Amino acid sequence: MQQRTLGTRQVGAIGLGGMPMSIEGRPDRERSIATVHAALEEGVTLIDTADAYSLGGDEVGHNEDLIAEALRSYGGDTSEVLVATKGGHLRPGDGSWTLNGRPEYLLEAAKASAKRLGVDAIGLYQFHRPDPEVPYADSIGAIKQLHDEGVIQLAGISNANIEQIDLARDILGDALVSVQNQFSPRFRSSQGELEHCAELGIAFLPWSPLGGIARASELGTDHAAFARIAEQRGVSPFQVTLAWELALAPVVIPIPGASRPESIRDSVKAADLELTPEEIAELSA
User: Which domain covers residue 130, as residue numbers?
Assistant: First the structure.
């Protein structure tokens, strides 16, 4: 698999999103760990998680615990694996999502995440989502403090617009290495942020790059060009989708969620699928 630079780290062109392993409809622990192991075996070296990936407030950090267990139990070398986690988003237990961007909360949340992951410093820590009750600069100031104190090695933001990207860059400087926004054939409103990250040399991590857990299976029916090119190439529509996203800019690193080893094994093949300029143009239209 080709390698791409994220800050000073080399990561696989496709990452693994851990959310499906911990929210509604999640698989058993054994299959989740097998999925992480399959990703590692295929050369994936970026694993995305968050303290909020759980069913409720009584199991905060469920996915972080799961990822940590999978890495500990893997028989191969994991020294190059970059685990990215997030803070500032919560799940109280009723299926909803809430926000907490208060600096004092983020400082404690990051330290709790590091403990669950079993690391002295988190590889990449991202502010999960802006909190309208807290000035954005204050939340990012907490991320900077975490970086200055060595609690995190690299910083990122998620669900951010261009103005917030620029503000975070002003505060964090070169410590800001990633922006994680929703982006897929169905959801393209972050195209401007993707292009802005490309101009700045900041990694853009599309979350739900296949359209989301409930909609990924519809790629082949709702987006005819993706299905047609997939059939012509003899690959899955998922591979075509991820290859298209990779072709949009060298900073793009999709993080498809997976809950089965077969899913991530199929997704990583997109890194070696080279689309023609004509195919890219058609898919982008």
Answer: 3-215+248-272
Q: Identify whether 115 is part of a domain.
A: yes
Q: Catalytic residue at 53?
A: yes
Q: Token pair of 1, please? A: 């698999």
Domain membership of residue 72 (yes or no) is yes
Q: How long a stretch of residues is the chain? A: 285
Where the chain has pLDDT below 70, the residues are: 1-4, 7-10, 214-217, 220
Which pLDDT belongs to residue 8? 54
What pLDDT is recorded for position 93?
Answer: 75
* Rg of the Cα atoms in the chain: 18
Structural domain contains residue 149: yes
Helix axes 29-41, 62-73, angle to 10 degrees: 60
Alpha-carbon span 87 to 141, nearest angstrom: 14
Give the count of domains, the chain: 1
The catalytic residue among 53, 105, 125, 136 is 53
pTM: 0.95
What is the rounded distance in angstroms from the CA atom of residue 135 to the CA atom of residue 37?
40
